[in-house]
Structures
1.
Amino acid sequence: MTDPSPASPLTHFDAQGQAHMVDVGAKAATHRVAIATGRIHMQPATLALIESGSAKKGDVLGVARIAAIMAAKKTSDLIPLCHPLALTRVAVEFELLRGASSVQCTATVETVGPTGVEMEALTAVQVALLTIYDMCKAADKRMVMEGVRVLEKHGGKSGSWVG
């Protein structure tokens, strides 16, 4: 069993060591921002299909962007104990890295609320990468997703953090 003592940095356990949703009701609503990133590696021919817009399933990056935004908005439905948040902004950017034969995805998520948006930013990136995989798997089954991580966060009691 996980140690529920006050010294524990884990906050999703009650006094009996049971998982629970943290009460953020008394926390001040502040502007919060999280930026996450990750990439998917593929064969050069697959990247060329994405870049030219000639993938059989259509506009890969356009669909991946919409999927990422939708996922960020539904994070609390996907991740247990995650608070539902009213997001004020979700921006998803893609960079084609020809030399590495990969697509880098970066998501910036913002809210004004009592808790951060790191999980929403991470979820947006991962779903964007999964969507790219799904739309291109017929051409390239060996794609690899990696490096999904939080780059930075701002706002809230703990202030800013840049990784």
Note: Confidence is low (pLDDT under 50) at residues 1-7.
2.
Amino acid sequence: MTEKEKMIAGLPYNANNPELVALRRDVRVKLAAYNSAGYVTETISAMLAGILGETGKGSWIEPPFYCDYGFNIKTGKDFYMNFDCVILDVAPVTIGDNVMCGPKVQLLAATHSLDPEERNFSGTELGKPITIGNRVWIGAGVIVCPGVTIGDEAVIGAGSVVTRDVPPRVFAAGNPCKVIKAI
């Protein structure tokens, strides 16, 4: 397997691999243009479609926006992400239809080994996919950790750190995020 294939599969991979370094460099060039392009226009919408792996109709991310690769991000239709958000997409990040994210949301599929011998700054990393269902609202400043699934129609309170799956139709909040009540 190539390092890119290992990365997408959630296996340990070498982030310093020349192909991955080039892909990160290429998306940063696209992001620089996107982040300086101004407000919503057909041109900037096309730029976003050229960054993400798949973009649903009517989806929009307010600049500035940052990601690792872009090609591992799939959004449904009518997705909205506010200013200054980060998606570390070393593993697939799948976002459903009609999802809203507040400013400074972080979707972090990237992770490292807990074993200090493996976590030695050699460039070895791994990722776990993030899945966000349909009609989800993620409040400002939320951090979604690797491997998390957020169920349909859930609401995540501002400032929460989501470390484990959230079921559908609940309001969840806190650090660590936990279910507060059913919706």
Note: The mean pLDDT is 94.
3.
Amino acid sequence: MTDAVLTASRLLVAISARSIASVDESITLSQFRLLVVLYARGPLKPTALAEALAVNPSTTTRMVDRLVAAGLVAREANPDSRRELVVKLTGDGTRAVREVMRRRRSEIARIVDRMPGGTRRGLVRALSAFAEASGDLSIGEQAGTRWL
């Protein structure tokens, strides 16, 4: 059972990596995760972004620096407090997230379409139960925004 889940997990990571590389080969999976958090939650203070990613603030700063240089995110004055900055997606960043997600959904749909109907229905039940059993509330939040 565990081996089957690990195999499926490797396939899904590979699909994600291919989808990202097809849009911009310079974006890493971790950087894309940052873009997705901003897409889902909107502009965030760097500390809140680090918390959402469960990484050190210095790691977030380095990722943001690279994504600013790539034109995918911007740092702006916080409208609530001019002394603070927020990180937000640029138009290019938003387009990149949407295109990666479109490609990822398309590739997963092609794979699922090759499965027999009964197996597809069982897959939905099994994956839903797997996500629920994890107890990770953020999974439900992500599913609600159609990331998975």
Note: The chain has seven helices and two strands.
4.
Amino acid sequence: MILSAEVECLIYDAQSLKQKRSVVKRIITRIQNDFNVAVSELDHQNLWQRTTIGLVTINSDKVIAEKTIQQTLAFIDSFPEIERTDTFLEWL
């Protein structure tokens, strides 16, 4: 089973692209180190306070794939400098 998620987020404290990229890079690096998912910034690279992060996991068990993505989303929510606004899940 392949589960992908597109996560749209706002970064309120970012006053420049440099600050935004610092926050996004830190979150992406931590996700790569802590979870069994592929992750990348997908959209809004040139906007200061907005980003879209893509997550993908592959597992033979649908429940485990769902649990992995939900844990990753909860991890993103734990960062006070970023707010998850929309999340789109898709099974492939």
Note: The chain is about 35% helix and 35% strand.
